[in-house]
Amino acid sequence: MEVVAGKANAEVGIAGSAGNPDTSLRLERLFGMEAQFWLDLQLAWDLYEVCHSPAVKNIRKIKRITRSGMNAINLLPGIRLTGRGNFRIQPP
Q1: Burial of 74 (0-12, 13-18, 19+ CB in 10 A)
Q2: To pair with 92 at 20 to 30 A between CA atoms, which of 35, 48, 66, 81?
Q3: What global pTM score does this model have?
Q4: Residue 92 clears pLDDT 90, i.e. is over it
């Protein structure tokens, strides 16, 4: 979503996605509600859409990884899982 103020703030054009931090700051300025509210609102809508889409069938097929499997995962160089979904960044 992009909010662009027109002539003396009399015209406001809105298009796109509120999930954009720049746009969320514009909406905060326009409506007086925190930018985080707009980001959270967009995230909630995106999650709702996925949960009610055909893609959810494939997502439900994903099997939870075991704790021993988590220990074997190397996410990125220097980042390791430490258990229960937490991670630690190791200096190079």
Answers
A1: exposed
A2: 66
A3: 0.55
A4: no
